[in-house]
């Protein structure tokens, strides 16, 4: 018997604090050498402008969790089918036997664990007094990234910018009362970048959204939206100016156009990558070293985030009697 957890179950069980705790521990175990995680396998579906990904991982140590996420990324879904861009399912296995423990909706889990990674990065890299965040992209990721930023820092105001202004207005109307902060939809991108303590790029853009010269000293950037070698949300100047931290070096150098393209241009080398977020969490390398430093966390998303969050969800579901037992 396996436990089936629906989208509704996942939303009910998983606050951002739990997601951030799970993801932070996953990054720590990765840095300690306790994770087995192949690079994701990708199947392009060009006829439908889609991408299908398989992401397995085993995390040892105190987590001792085994699982697999299958995730589809279809940028046309919101406008053509009224579906999310990202749709996912997670299978959690018993690491002792390999038997299935749970099958759960991975779409909201993915949104939350990705937001949580941004929150953990802000916890270790953003200035402690960061109060203003600018969100680039008013989609699901923009929402969970703001939730996580508010959990990590004393945020009092957020700007939201989207290529479709109506999306920004809807976002602001939803998120301001939800988080109890001022959320301002804006079309003045330069002002939003120049005033930000934290900038989160969580869009579907294939080209840089803003010039790096707009960033003021002390800004922290989370680069979340792009995850292929030929696309990027951040320009070369942004990457060149920043202390660059990645989720995993191997994955970033294989998949993160925000890093790969500046290397190809000759603007930086691989040595420009300061290290991995887990190394900072584990105390192996320093994070921010001055209030004026510009810091950048570039994430392509790792299977350890999914598996650690799924394991946390499974434990919470068992404790609270949530979910449906199903024979397989």
Describe the structure.
By secondary structure, the protein is α/β, with parallel strands linked by helices. The protein has two domains: 2-110 and 304-326, ornithine cyclodeaminase, domain 1 (2-Layer Sandwich), CATH 3.30.1780; 125-301, NAD(P)-binding Rossmann-like Domain (Rossmann fold), CATH 3.40.50. 38% of the residues lie in helices and 25% in strands. It has helices at residues 7-13, 16-31, 77-80, 107-125, 140-152, 165-179, 189-194, 236-241, 249-255, 257-265, 277-281, 303-320; strands spanning 2-5, 35-36, 41-45, 50-59, 65-73, 86-93, 100-105, 132-136, 157-161, 182-185, 198-201, 220-223, 243-246, 273-276, 295-298, 324-326. Strands 1, 2, 3, 4, 5, 6, 7 and 16 form an eight-stranded mixed beta sheet that branches. The longest helix is centred in the middle third of the chain and has 19 residues, at 107-125. It is globular, with a radius of gyration of 19 Å. It starts with a strand and ends with a strand. The model has no long low-confidence stretch (mean pLDDT 96).
């Amino acid at each position: 018997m396996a436990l089936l957890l629906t989208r509704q179950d996942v939303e009910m069980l998983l606050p951002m604090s739990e997601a951030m705790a799970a993801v932070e521990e996953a990054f720590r175990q990765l840095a300690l050498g306790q994770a087995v995680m192949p690079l994701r396998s990708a199947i392009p579906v060009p006829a439908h402008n889609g991408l299908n990904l398989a992401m397995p991982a085993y995390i040892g140590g105190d987590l001792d969790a085994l699982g697999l996420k299958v995730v589809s990324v279809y940028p046309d879904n919101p406008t053509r089918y009224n579906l999310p861009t990202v749709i996912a399912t997670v299978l959690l296995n018993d690491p002792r036997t390999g038997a299935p423990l749970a099958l759960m909706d991975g779409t909201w889990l993915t949104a939350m664990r990705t937001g949580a990674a941004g929150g953990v990065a802000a916890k270790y890299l953003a200035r402690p007094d960061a109060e203003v965040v600018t969100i680039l992209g008013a989609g699901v990721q923009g929402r969970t990234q703001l939730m996580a930023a508010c959990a990590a820092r004393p945020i009092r105001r957020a700007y939201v910018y989207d290529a479709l202004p109506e999306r920004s207005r809807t976002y602001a109307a939803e998120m301001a009362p939800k988080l109890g902060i001022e959320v301002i939809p804006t079309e003045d991108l330069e002002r939003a970048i120049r005033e930000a303590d934290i900038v989160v790029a969580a869009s579907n853009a294939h080209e840089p959204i803003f010039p790096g010269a707009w960033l003021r000293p002390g800004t922290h950037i989370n680069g979340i939206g792009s995850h292929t070698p030929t696309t990027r949300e951040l320009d070369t100047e942004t990457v060149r100016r920043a202390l660059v931290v990645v989720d995993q070096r191997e994955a970033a150098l294989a998949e993160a156009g925000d890093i790969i393209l500046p290397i190809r241009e000759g603007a930086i080398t691989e040595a420009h990558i300061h290290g991995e977020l887990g190394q900072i969490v584990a105390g192996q390398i320093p994070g921010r070293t001055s209030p004026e430093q510009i810091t950048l966390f570039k994430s392509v998303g790792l299977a350890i985030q999914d598996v650690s969050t799924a394991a946390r969800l499974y434990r919470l579901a068992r404790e609270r009697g949530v979910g449906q037992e199903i024979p397989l």
